[in-house]
Design a protein that fits this description.
This protein is of the alpha/beta class and about 280 residues long. The chain is about 40% helix and about 25% strand. The strands form 4 sheets. The chain has a 4-stranded parallel sheet with strand order 2-1-6-7, with helices on both faces. A 4-stranded mixed sheet has the order 8-14-12-13. α3 crosses α4 and α5 packs antiparallel against α6. The longest helix is centred in the middle third of the chain and has 15 residues.
C-alpha cells in the first residue's frame, strides 16, 4: 500500500493521523537560540508567551534532511511507494527537503512529492483524500493525478484576531497593524495559488466577525465536497467554535465537521484567536 507522509503544517489531529495511517515530518521552530520540532516538543501557547516577551515572531524552518531520510527510509526499504505532501513551495523549502531525501535514498522512482500550494488543513484535506485512495489500493501515480485535480478546488481561508503576529513576521506593515487594532479590523486571509492574500476586512468583536466570515461562504459551503469540512483554529473560545459547528451542521452539507488546533508553525505567524473554515469545492 502507498505510504502517505506530510509535513507538520498540515495541522491534522493525532486521531486523524492514526485513522488514516499518515506519518508526519516536523518543521523546526526557533525561539531565539533554542530549536524545537513543530508538534513534538513545543506548544502554540509556549510560542505566544515567548513571542509576547520578545516582541518578535519565532523563526521557522524546513525539516532537516536527516529527519526526512530517517522517516522515509523504512518505507523505501520495504519497497513501498511514498506520497509526501509539503506546505506551499512559496512558503517553505519543506518540499525540496523531501525531494533531496528521495535522491539521498536513491528512491526518486517510488517517491512523489506534492506541493500542496496551501497551508494548515488546506494541506490536510489533500492528505486525507490521498490516504483514502491509498487504503483503497490505488497506486502512487493514480493518487498523484487525482490530487492534482483536487488541489485547485481546496478553499483555505482564516480570520485573525490580531494583526500583531502578522506584523512581527513581516506580513503586515506596522501602520496597518496599528490601524487594525484601533478600528478592531479583522482581515480575512485567503490562500490562492500557494500564497496568502488579504481579503475582506471585518469590523467588531471576534464572535460577530467569525460568524459573518463563515456565512459569507455559505454558497460555496453548500456546493462543497460533502465528505468533510475543517474548523481549524489557534485556541479560540469553545463557545465560538461550537457556534461555527452548529452553523455548519445546520447547512446539512457535510458528513463530518472536524475541529483541529493549528500547529506551532501556523500559530506562530497568525497568533491566538485565529479561525478558519476549510473545505474542497
Amino acid at each position: 500500500m502507498v505510504k502517505i507522509i506530510a509535513d507538520s503544517t498540515c495541522d491534522l489531529s493525532k486521531e486523524l493521523l492514526e485513522r488514516y495511517d499518515i506519518s508526519i515530518l516536523p518543521l523546526h521552530i526557533l525561539l531565539g537560540e533554542e530549536e524545537y520540532l513543530d508538534g513534538v516538543n513545543i506548544t502554540p501557547q509556549e510560542i505566544y508567551n515567548w513571542s509576547d516577551r520578545q516582541k518578535t515572531t519565532p523563526k521557522t524552518s524546513a525539516p532537516s534532511l536527516e529527519d526526512a531520510v530517517e522517516l522515509m527510509k523504512p518505507y523505501v526499504e520495504e519497497g513501498r511507494e511514498l506520497i509526501c505532501f509539503s506546505i506551499s513551495d512559496d512558503m517553505s523549502t519543506s518540499g525540496n527537503v523531501m525531494r533531496l531525501a528521495a535522491e539521498e535514498l536513491q528512491a526518486e522512482e517510488c517517491v512523489k512529492v506534492i506541493n500542496s500550494a496551501n497551508l494548515s488543513t488546506g494541506i490536510g484535506l489533500q492528505v486525507i483524500e490521498a490516504a483514502i485512495m491509498a487504503q483503497k489500493g490505488m497506486d502512487g501515480e493514480t493518487i498523484a493525478r487525482q490530487i492534482e485535480r483536487i488541489c485547485p478546488r481546496v478553499r483555505a481561508s482564516f480570520v485573525v484576531d490580531t494583526l500583531t503576529y502578522l506584523h512581527r513576521g513581516g506580513r503586515c506593515s506596522g501602520l496597518a497593524a496599528m490601524a487594525g487594532g484601533a478600528l478592531k479590523l479583522h482581515p480575512r486571509i485567503v490562500v490562492e495559488e500557494g500564497k496568502m492574500k488579504p481579503g475582506k476586512k471585518y469590523r467588531g468583536g471576534m464572535n460577530k466577525v467569525i460568524l459573518s466570515y463563515v456565512k459569507d461562504m455559505e454558497e460555496d459551503l453548500k456546493n462543497a465536497k460533502k465528505d468533510r469540512v475543517f474548523i481549524t483554529h489557534s485556541g479560540c473560545d469553545k463557545e465560538l467554535v461550537d457556534e461555527v459547528k452548529a452553523y455548519l451542521k445546520s447547512l446539512g452539507c457535510f458528513d463530518e465537521i472536524l475541529e483541529t488546533i493549528a500547529g506551532g508553525v501556523i500559530s506562530s505567524h497568525c497568533g491566538p484567536g485565529t479561525l478558519g473554515v476549510l473545505f474542497i469545492l
